[in-house]
Amino acid sequence: MADPSEIAVRLFILHPSNTMSIPLLTYQPTSQNHRVPGYEVPNEDTPYIYRLEDCTDNTDLEELIWAGYRQVFSEHVILKSSQQADLESQLKNRSITVRDFIRGLSKSDTYRKLVVETNSNYRIVDITLKRLLGRSSYNQDEQIAWSIVIATQGFDGFVDALIDSDEYTTSFGDTTIPYQRRRYKERPFNLVTPRYGNYWRDRLEEQRYKSGNVKNFLEMARSLSIPQVKYTPVQTANISIPDMTRTTKPKVPASINTIASFPVR
Length: 265
Fold this sequence. Notes:
Layout: H1 4-14, H2 58-73, H3 85-92, H4 98-106, H5 109-114, H6 121-132, H7 140-163, H8 166-171, H9 189-192, H10 198-207, H11 214-223
């Protein structure tokens, strides 16, 4: 069931008198790990930072491209069918920056099908912030603010607002693949945040055929058409039933001997 506050936001946006562009609502950032200095000793959980200026050959560039796929599409969805050949070619030729490469991945049909079409605006905001800015949403106020941007400017406008923001520029610039900026006692975002929530999972479960479910037999029974039977009245007064009673006994040999081959009486 949709959140009542989200329904109120949608109704406000859809009202004819509110079709004008709405500025981003203000929200108060809360303390998160990426907003305070870190003193962790680098270990296996420390993210590797992929920068375009560090690529010395085509192998390094391929690793940077796949790092972008892992960050935006999540490493569970690194499929050949998800590759964006045009964006890869432009990045290899230096026709676009890493920032534009991430922008193109976020606006691709793959991301739209995997994330945008299977989630509410609130969840889209939270997932996209993790993928593009490397942090989760501060609070529900931020989710509401960016949900209004999605409702008024569309998802592409929301992506542009994030990638062109000062936060993105300060954290990643034009040449760095976004990454989870700080992680403390948490698993990576792509492991703890599935691409759709309970609502979509329950919806898929309801649509899935379950063998032995009573509902399947009820639907089958309702689909059957039972014709109405018409009974023809019969008069029994003029019907004569022949007498089948036997007057003579059949001449069948019988014996009391248990080993005889003919019938025993």
